[in-house]
Backbone:
């Protein structure tokens, strides 16, 4: 049995224990005040289902980032519901029937609204995670340059391609949506591969100049985009 099931089982046992203790410790109040019975069962249910907010929110998670982002707040939500239910039970035992029932209503409302709020937060986290989890364009260009270096027939071309690959290693990371230079850079890498494979000097020099210019423009574009964020 895995850890979540064990936690749920232990919480269910505690919920049953709360009901039993209630009838053992205050049987007279429970026998004469129906509101105390209601609040007792609400308290027991809130303890037994303490993992419910976590399950409701994280079950729809598509990534670990989404589930981990709301795991702590969801657990705090569950304990907050328990505190409200306990306050309602104590109020009912003290004779404040309406206050006890009101606390239980608030507990249920907090559970539902809090779960919906955390679900919205998780969806936002997952959207950001999805935007940044795509394949790296830089990695693709570096791979293309490595292939071009392996295919180069001239040693000086091979050395220059390795230098360009190292330059790309330290370039700024991608941003969601990409840059205007991304497409031309892919074409420049393809052109470098063709020039290195054929050993055409003029085409290779032109390709290197085009690649370096596009990388410089890309750095400026990314810097401007991040400064506006």
Residues:
């Amino acid at each position: 049995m895995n850890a979540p099931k064990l936690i749920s089982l232990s919480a269910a046992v505690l919920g049953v224990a709360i009901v039993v203790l209630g009838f053992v410790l205050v049987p007279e109040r429970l026998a004469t005040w129906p509101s105390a019975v209601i609040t007792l069962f609400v308290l027991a249910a809130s303890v037994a289902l303490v993992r419910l907010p976590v399950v409701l929110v994280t079950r729809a998670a598509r990534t670990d980032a989404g589930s981990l982002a709301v795991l702590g707040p969801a657990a705090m939500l569950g304990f907050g519901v328990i505190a409200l239910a306990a306050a309602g039970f104590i109020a009912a035992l003290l004779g404040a029937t309406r206050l006890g029932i009101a606390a239980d209503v608030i507990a249920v409302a907090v559970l539902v609204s809090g779960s919906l709020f955390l679900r919205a937060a998780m969806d936002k986290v997952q959207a950001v995670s999805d935007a940044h989890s795509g394949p790296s364009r830089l990695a693709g260009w570096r791979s293309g340059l490595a292939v071009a270096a392996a295919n180069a027939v001239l040693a000086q071309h091979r050395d220059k391609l390795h230098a360009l690959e190292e330059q790309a290693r330290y370039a700024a990371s991608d941003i969601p949506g990409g840059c205007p230079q991304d497409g031309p850079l892919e074409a420049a890498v393809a052109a470098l591969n063709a020039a290195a494979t054929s050993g055409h000097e003029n085409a290779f020099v032109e390709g290197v100049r085009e690649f370096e210019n596009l990388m410089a423009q890309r750095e400026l574009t990314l810097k401007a985009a991040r400064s506006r964020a």
